[in-house]
Amino acid sequence: MSTRVAVVTGSNKGIGFAIVEGLCRRFEGVVYLTSRDETRGRAAVAELNKRGLKPEYHQLDVVDRSSVARFRDHLKQQHGGIDILINNAAIANSVELYNSYEENKEIVEINYKSILLMQEYIFPLVRNNGRILNISSDCGHLSNLRNKYWIDRLSDKNLTMQDINEFVEWFLESCRTGSFKREDFADEGTIAAYRVAKVALSAATMLQQKELEARNISVNSMHPGLVRTDMTGGVGFYNAAEAAETPLYLVLDAPQSLKGAYIWYDRKVLDWYDYKADYYFKTSALQA
User: Fold this and answer.
1) Could you say which DSSP state residue 112 is in?
2) Judging by DSSP bridges, how do beta strands 126-135 and 82-87 pair with one another?
3) If we measure between CA atoms, which residue out of 10, 27, 276 comes closest to residue 134?
4) What whole-number distance in Å separates Cα of residue 287 and Cα of residue 80?
5) How far apart are CA 261 and CA 126, in angstroms?
6) What's the rounded Cα separation, in Å, for the pair 61 and 49?
């Protein structure tokens, strides 16, 4: 039987690093720590080595097609496939609550469009009965939207990737042309790009599940909670190790039948479509 393989993107620090550590302790197989910056990635591996753990390392820039393709080729050649994929790579880049068009574009690229590259190159390597977890956010729940047209379109049972991509492009175009309206989003449209990217990611998760259903692969998205990391400026109600517990549960312990779900940090499965719910991100939570 081939060796089992787990991959965590963007895992040289924060939640990703804590997930890799947890997998090294509990997963019977090879665990890949990946990072855009090789020096930081290898330093993270060295830190885990000091703790008696031995993850593999591979450079991976999730928005660089050639980098993703190289990683795909490496996994194929070395292992033939993988069993667990955790799409964790993300940036917040929102010290300010409202960002420039260029900043918004980068946030969307890394938090959402990277998933499309991973889907194209890495998803085909996931073996039958494997697990994929997309790390989303409370910004990824549909209640972050106030624009009825997009709520209805993203809620449609015949949703397509084209619908999701057009939603993302609608937002970016509104930023580029200056037609962005704060009232289209919850919380006065703060950190709108992050909301758009994570809503798109959560919606895409359900389509990815449909696509992989025949191979009994489970695909879920989750909100890890407000975690004290560099990305949150150290604000949060628990640390990265605590935040890694639910992701680890979802890829190692949860029933395989849990599929296409949007899951809260306490393992509760939420109704993603409930746009009137109080699950959206509030900037008041950042007031430490």
Assistant:
1) I
2) parallel
3) 10
4) 47
5) 19
6) 23
DSSP output for 116-130: HHHHHHTGGGEEEEE
Is 149 a residue of the active site? no
Which burial class, exposed, middle or buried, applies to 162 when counting CB atoms under 10 A from its CB (0-12, 13-18, 19+)? exposed
Angle, CA of 78, 64 and 241, to the nearest 5°: 70
Q: pTM surpassing 0.85?
A: yes
Provide the token pair at 126.
């996931």
| Helical ranges in 178-288 per DSSP H | 192-212, 240-243, 245-252
How, if at all, do strands 269-270 and 30-35 pair?
unpaired
Cβ proximity of 44 and 33 under 8 Å: yes
CA-to-CA separations, 55 to 47, 227, 238, 286, in angstroms, rounded: 10, 23, 25, 33
17 is written with which tokens?
């690093």
With cut-offs at 50, 70 and 90, classify the pLDDT of residue 1: low
**CA distance from start to end of the chain:** 50
Active-site position among 112, 194, 265, 275: 194
Which of 10, 12, 74, 85 is CA-nearest to residue 48? 12
Q: Read off the pLDDT of residues 37-94 as tens digits, 9 standing for 90 and up.
A: 999 999 999 999 999 999 999 999 999 999 999 999 999 999 999 999 999 988 765 5
Q: What is the pLDDT of residues 42-52, one digit of tens each?
A: 999 999 999 99
CB atoms within 10 A of CB 114: 24
Three-class secondary structure of residue 34 per DSSP? strand
Cα–Cα distance measured from residue 62 to residue 55, given in angstroms and rounded to the nearest whole number = 19
Beta-sheet pairing, 82-87 with 30-35: unpaired
Distance, in Å, from the CA atom of 137 to the CA atom of 134, rounded to the nearest integer, reads 10
- One-letter identity of residue 259: K
Closest CA to 197 of 99, 102, 267, 114: 114
